[in-house]
Structure formats: structure tokens, C-alpha cells
Amino acid sequence: MEQNNHLVSVIIPVYNGGRYLGEAIESVLSQTGFPLEIIVVDDGSTDDTASIAQNFGASIRYHYQINGGAGAARNQGVVLARGNFLAFLDADDLWMVDKLKRQWAAFEADHDLELAFGHIQQFYSPELTREEKDRLSIPVEIMPGNHAGTMLIKKETFLRVGLFKPDLRVGEFIDWYARATELNIKSIMLTDVVMKRRIHKTNMGILHRDQRSGYVHALKAALDRRRSRE
Q: Residues 6 or more apart from 75 whose CB is under 8 A from it?
């Protein structure tokens, strides 16, 4: 499977993430040896997101839409994607420089593979004070990354599972991954760290604490589907 025959569409949803967006894009541009298209979906930002994205010129494709949440933004990116592989990165996170290289090796080793994940390491954003870090205490260990940002997936496989549910402002990836698991998608969890997850004061999980019922909804929906098949 020659990598140059396969375009990877990298979808970056962003809402008022101008502060970190440039670093996220740079971490994708650091992936070498792969034909990439980077699609930045601006989900109704009111900060300097648009100007930062557009400063990258032809290196990215920029799309603006009315705010609909991360799931809706990722879905729009999928609609725009021309690649036969999809990858996602939140605008405040970072890919490791060899992320795609390591995942591509897994696809080359197993042509039946449909989805590759990798491990995550969390880090405190440099602007946080000691007191803020203490309030946002995070696990320091490297952990398996069942997360949209670690994923490299065949587009046809993603579409077989279906789009993210846009009504879930949080938990949309949990719901999607539950549906993928039910379809017995062939996947692998690499032991390599492929993504660094930034912890800061405006993480979506912090901003939308009041909508964490989305996690419960996603898990309940998965259980209901399982029961209906029994």
C-alpha cells in the first residue's frame, strides 16, 4: 500500500481557539512523506481564529459555519474531505512529529486494518499558573488514546459507522466509537504516543460541565442497541 497513493484529510474543528490553533496546524504540517489536506472548520468563532487559519494560505482549506458544536464541525470536515483516509485534531492539541508515519506502518503491515489509534500524553498549557494547574490536576502517565485526535481511519470505514451526532456537545466521540465497536471494525491501539492533549482553562469538558449528560446519553444508547440485538 503505497502511501503516496493515499490522501489523508486532516480535519481541525475550532471554536474561539485562535490562541492554540497555529501550533496545532504546525504539528500536522510536521508530518512528512504524506500527501495531506488540512481542513480547518471554524465553528462560529468570534476571536482571531479566522486570521490565524488564513495566515497559513494554501497550506490549509478554511471553512466557516454557524456554531454547532465539535461533532457538527467534524461532520462538515468529512463532507469537504477529498482523502481516502481521515484524521482529526482538536485545535488545542498537538500531534507528535511521527504520528502518521507510525500509524501508516500499521496499515502497511495489515491491509485489513481499518482504524489505528495511539497513546496520549496530557500536558499543562504553559500559560497556566501553579494554582490553576493544581485545580486542573491531570494524570501524568501515558494512556491509551481512544480519542478522535489519535485516530487514522479509512474514509469508507468512517462512513460505514456514520457521522458524529451533532446534538451531543460532549460525548460525541464516545457515541461514535461505541457504534464502531458494534460493527467489529478492525482496529489497533499502538503503544506509541501520537498526540499530546493540552489542558487549559477553556477545555470543552470544562466549559460544558453542564452538558456532561451527553456522556451518559452516549453510553445508554450503546447499551440500548446491545440489548435490542440480544
A: 163, 164, 166
Tell which residue, 107, 173, 175, has the closest CA to residue 145: 173
| Parallel, antiparallel or unpaired: strands 187-199 and 85-88 | unpaired
Evaluate whether 65 touches 153 at the Cβ level (below 8 Å): no
Q: What is the pLDDT of residue 11?
A: 98
Residue type, 180: A
Higher pLDDT, 227 or 18: 18
Q: Which residue has the higher pLDDT, 167 or 117?
A: 117
pTM of the model: 0.87
Q: For residue 218, what are the CA distances in angstroms to 170, 224, 230?
A: 9, 10, 19
Q: Classify 129 as helix, strand or coil.
A: coil
- Domains of the chain in sequence order: 3-229 (3.90.550.10)
